[in-house]
Amino acid sequence: MKSIKKENVKLIYIDLFCGAGGTSTGVDSARYKGSKCAKVVTCVNHDKNAIESHESNHPKVLHFTEDIRTLELSSMIEHVEKMKVIYPDAFVVLWASLECTNFSKAKGGQPRNADSRTLAEHLFRYIDAFDPHYIKIENVEEFMSWGDIDEYGKPISMDKGKSYEKWVYKIK
């Protein structure tokens, strides 16, 4: 009889803006003393192609093809609660690879999208819903200069970093 190695999962992840699954692959590769110690249990991305790719690489994850701003969270909450029963010693980690295009210097002098720049504000709904033990946020360094933009979609230099500082305060 083939023995099944019991997973010693200590971290269960909720992956927001999961894309095609790079973060999830890294999480699934994590080992502690030779045993799997982390697992992505659910993820969200608005892009259908990204979710299809993610699902092919991570078929046991509960997937949502939805905008994080509009996703009704009850199914996700229920799933995470089930995972907490299966892995009672695990900590819940909320991972958010927030939209970065409209902060990045790679955008050049092109106008920024005010709506995309506010996606980080929607993270609070997930924090309230899941009360995670840890929150991990990944973004470009220019995210720290998040401030208001003018009517032409250009960052207002005197507001540089103000929105980011308010956001960090709310996270804390």
Topology record:
Layout lengths: L10 E6 L5 H8 L1 E2 L2 E2 L1 E8 L2 H10 L4 E4 L8 H13 L4 E7 L25 H8 L3 E5 L23 H10 L1
Parallel strand pairs: 1-4, 1-6, 4-5, 6-7
Antiparallel strand pairs: 2-3
Describe the overall structure:
The longest helix has 13 residues, at 74-86. This protein is of the alpha/beta class and 172 residues long. It has one domain: Vaccinia Virus protein VP39 (Rossmann fold, 3-Layer(aba) Sandwich). It is globular and about 50 Å long. Helix content is 28%, strand content 20%. It has a 5-stranded parallel β-sheet, with helices on both faces. The model is unreliable at 111-115 (pLDDT under 50).
Number of domains: 1
Number of helices: 5
Order of secondary-structure elements: EHEEEHEHEHEH
CATH fold-level name: Rossmann fold
**What is the terminal-to-terminal distance?**
50 Å
Largest sheet: 5 strands, parallel
The dominant shape is: globular
- Whole-number mean pLDDT: 81
How are the strands ordered across the major sheet?
5-4-1-6-7
Fraction of helical residues: 25-40%
Backbone structural class? alpha/beta
The amount of beta strand, in percent, is: 15-25%
Quick one: CATH class? Alpha Beta
| pLDDT < 50 stretches | 111-115
Number of strands: 7
The second-level CATH architecture is 3-Layer(aba) Sandwich
Radius of gyration: 18 Å
CATH homologous superfamily title: Vaccinia Virus protein VP39
